[in-house]
Every structure is written in C-alpha cells, then in structure tokens.
Amino acid sequence: MAETLSSQNGKVPRPEIPVDNLIYQTTEYCVWLDEKLDVWWDTEECFESKMIELEGRAEWGEIMSRLTELEAFPISHLSEESRRGFKFQAGNGILLLFTEKFDHAKKMMISAETFYRIRTAEQARSWILYAGLLAAMSFTAAACVTGWIGKVTVMKPENLFEEIMLGSLVGTWGAFVSLIARASVLGIDATAGKRLHFLETTCRIVTGFIAGGIAVSAVEAGIIAPAIIKAGASSIVIVGFTAGFSERFLPSLIGRVDTSLKGNSSLPKR
Q1: Whole-prediction pTM value?
Q2: What are the boundaries of each domain within the chain?
C-alpha cells in the first residue's frame, strides 16, 4: 500500500493508470490500483486542507489500520477476478474515507475481508476435493490395471487377502464421500498453500484405505459384527465404505482392542 505520491523534493507525477484499475477520480483526488493491485491514491493541492483535517480524525487511523491489514493478506491463491474484487472493495473504503462517510468506509473494509475469506475457503475446498478425487481414482486405477478389481467384484473373493483389499479399496471411496460431506465445515484456509491441502487430503484417503482393510479384518476376527461377512462381497463393500467414511472408526476399534488386551493380561496365568 502507498499513500500520497510525494517525495522530499515535492510532488511526484501521477503514473498513468489503466482504466480497469481506476477506482475513482475527481479534480481533488484519485484512487486506483497499481499493477500489483495495491491501493494507491493521490490528492491535489485544493484537497490538502481537507486531507490534513481527515488525518487528524480518529477514524483515519482506524480505517488506515484496516487497509494495512487487508493489504497484508496473501492473494496469490485467488483467481485474478477475485483478487481485483477484493482490492477494489478495499480501495472503495478509502474513497468513502475521503468523502467523510466513515461508517460506510468501515463497513466496506469488513465487506472486503468477508469477500476474501469466502473466496479463500472456496479455493481450499476445490483443492481438497480435487486431491481427494485424484487419490481415490489412483487407488482404483491401480486395481483396474492389475485386473484384480474385476475378479473380486464379479466373483466372490476367494481368500482373506482379497477380502481385505476389497474393503480397503472401498474404504478410499468412503473417505472421499466423507470429504465431500464435510468440505464446508473443515478447518481449511487456502493461505496455508496448495501443497499442505493436497498432502492432508491424500493422508485422509490413505487412512480410509487402511480403515477399510482393518474393518474387514476385525469382522473376520469376530471383533465386530462377525456374522455380516457371510453375506459375501456386498457385506465387505458396506463394511469397508463405512470404515473409510467414519473418522471415529479406527480410534473406536483400537480402544476396544486395547481394552480387550488389558482384560486378558489381568487374567491369572496357568
């Protein structure tokens, strides 16, 4: 952000402003965005007395502080349209300040931040959903390439390994559906970067893969719903998907097994 175009030797000529970057211009002042979309303004001599008066108002410091805060927000993750929309709102806050509409200027700064937060959350959700779909499709593609998925879905799995792998594969899609259902309530922020969102989402899908396989193993071991496995491949799909979808499944299962082990260890030895 920059304030007035001035130097120790006097006024610096106002740069040429692209029409798309001009926020407002009068014979007294001009407010615009530079090539980096930072808010700039320039005042004429006839506005100097008013400028001195404005700078002495308490609202000046408050609104300038808000602008400084908004200008510090990273915007590289946003689309060009969203960047311009955000910065134009901040620039309009300065315009309203110059016209002494202080309450409206404060509301405009709040609107600019709200706009930024919404667009940032949308970008984060798009990264999460894209990364989740990519990870789930990768697991499915690997199963298709090996020809294994066709065998276990058309025919009944022949051994425990095939049952576990089917549960794991379905678990990845359970985790992806969970992402879709919860994307709007996850604690996400695109300013953390694309890499972190992709890494975290991939870990969620991998966790679904692991949970699906462990769920089938737990059923086979009789730890949970032992009778359901007799229904064949369809029951494995249900168990694997449910385990992948529920984030509470693994902690709950581990707690149950841990309690069982502690109970067994307390029994007297022969």
Answers
A1: 0.74
A2: 6-100, 123-265
